[in-house]
Amino acid sequence: MISTEVTGGPVGVKTKLVPRRRRRNRTTYVIKSILLWTFSLLFLLPFAWMVSSSLKRNIDVFSIPPKWIPNPIEWANYVEVWLHGDPSMAIFFSNSITVSLIGVLGDLTTASMAGYAFARLSFAGRDKIFLLYLATAIVPSQLLLIPRFMFFQQLGLYKTLWALILPGIFTVFGTFLCRQAFLSLPGEFGEAARIDGAGEWRVFFNVYLPQIRPTLAALGIISFVGSWNDYEGPLIMLSDKELFTVPLGLTRFVDADGGLSAGFAMAGSVSSVIPIMIIFLLFQRQFIAALASSGLK
Questions:
Q1: Which of 54, 70, 104, 241 could form a cystine bridge with 267, CB 3.0-4.6 A?
Q2: CB within 8 A of 223, min separation 6: which ones?
Q3: Is 19 exposed, middle or buried (0-12, 13-18, 19+ CB in 10 A)?
Q4: Under a CB-based contact definition with an 8 Å cutoff, are residues 118 and 175 in contact?
Q5: Transmembrane ranges (predicted)?
Q6: Model confidence pLDDT, tens digit, residues 206-240
């Protein structure tokens, strides 16, 4: 009874401060939400313009002021991109999917095995070898294009998709990411399995590998996006149009004089973004969990 009647004492002060703090928190939350939504819409504007332009005639794409709602809607742009052309976008998609999927599977295999070896196996010079391997990431990839070109030409793999697949199978970043994931797991798991008679392969496949699935999902997304968006590799390694990947195939909408078929180019660009969006939406939980657990920002 005393605490409910007293308004000037400590209890009364606390009862007045709690609603104020709640109002401040709500106000802060609303302001942050408005700012985040505003920035999100700003980042989505280029994509919205690309989708809108993909449904316009070429003459309307760069009209001033820009028209966000196309009139008339040119669905024929997508029909032309996917069903016509020499070759069509379907061929480019097939090549990119082949290169990306095989590269991702190879990267996950080699990175997980190498990461486990550097994290859980004891051998002479392990840390020094890992540091040397990590130091190779300093070399810009552009410097390796000409040596890679000469190497694959001598192997007879030039002008083939394998010239794009093989370099993506071994990545320093993937090895580092998997090593950090394995180091974050308790070593007692492996020791208990070995006491029960499990061999090293079984410890790797049955004990440790299932626990880094979020990391593998994150690495798979990063590897897929990097392989899918690669332009320099196909530009150097491929000359047959039937083997072009999506980024290189989009250049066919630019003629010899520099003229751009904007409607067709935007339709192809929108189509090229869809697989990346699907992959991220399917594995976004694992991706976020991997970044949170590994401490990456």
A1: 54
A2: 100, 103, 104, 107, 108, 168, 171, 174
A3: exposed
A4: yes
A5: 29-51, 97-118, 130-149, 161-182, 203-228, 260-283
A6: 888 988 888 898 899 889 999 999 998 899 998 88
pLDDT in tens, 19-53: 777 777 788 888 888 888 888 888 888 888 888 88
> Is 206 a member of any domain?
yes
Same-domain status, 98 and 222: yes
Residue 196 to residues 190, 202, 210: CA-CA distances in angstroms?
10, 11, 19
Q: Are 182 and 216 in contact (CB under 8 A)?
A: no
Domain hosting residue 28, numbered range: 2-53
CB 112 within 8 A of CB 205: no
Q: Are residues 157 and 239 in the same domain?
A: yes
Q: How far is CA 154 from the centre of its chain?
A: 32
Number of domains comprising the chain: 2
- Are 41 and 181 within one domain? no
Find tokens 């104020």 and name the residue.
20
The answer as to whether 184 is a domain residue is: yes
pLDDT at res. 255: 67
Query: Residue 41 is encoded by which pair of tokens?
Result: 């819409």
